[in-house]
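Exercise 3.2. Students should predict the tertiary structure of the chain below and write it as structure tokens, then compare their answer with the key that follows.

Predict this chain's 3D structure.
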Amino acid sequence: MRAALLRNIGDDALEVRDDIELVAIGPGEVKVKIEATGVCHSDLSCLNGTIPQPAPSVLGHEGAGIISEVGEGVTDVKVGDHVIVAWSPPCGECAYCGPRNQPNLCSNIQMVMGGTPHFTLDGSPVFGMAGTGTFAEEMIIPHQGVVKIDDLYSIEWAYIPHFYNAFYVFQYATSVSAGSLFANDILSGKPGAREKYLKLISSGGSDYPYELVKAAGVDLATSAPYDAVARRMNKIMDEMEGLVAKRKG
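Answer key:
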């Protein structure tokens, strides 16, 4: 099987090989035929050692494909299903997944995935990045690590970078938006802004994130936080254009 292999941490390139093999599929696992994969800066960070990743390993953690085999006990997906690979799936059973309603904080399955090599090379174990390894023609992952999509749709769109369970880039975007408005209010000296922000930080997971942020003075259901991001970006762009003009002058 073809795959892009990171032989050693610090290598400046991946080895594209055709002799990588998969171990036998286990109970609760599924095999995915990868049809499309995204490339993320995290792959480079694993390559250069910024993000810890055992080597040798098959990189890639954003992908979409078709279920080609299911292990014993798997009932939520079947052979032929179109799926998105989710490298950080919630277990559905812990406190984060249940009463706290914060499945994006669950790491139970992810920790097991990351330490379980599903590839081999010359009989020796090869890990997959974050327990996946989408830079391969096929990969094995716990069944919780795939998200079924409608078979009516083509799967090419589904490899859009970071489009997987919990949509955490969406969470990043809203966090940046809220953070920009918090920063603007604090730096401008708005009365009570600093105290509300510190109260938000100390609230932890005591309520839904939206409600906590709203109580701190930022309502993500309004345009205010997103307008703040736009203003900040425009200011940065104006400064950059000014520096370029000054350099040319």
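Discussion points: The chain has two domains: 3-166, 169-248. Helices lie at 41-48, 108-114, 168-187, 193-203, 209-215, 224-248.
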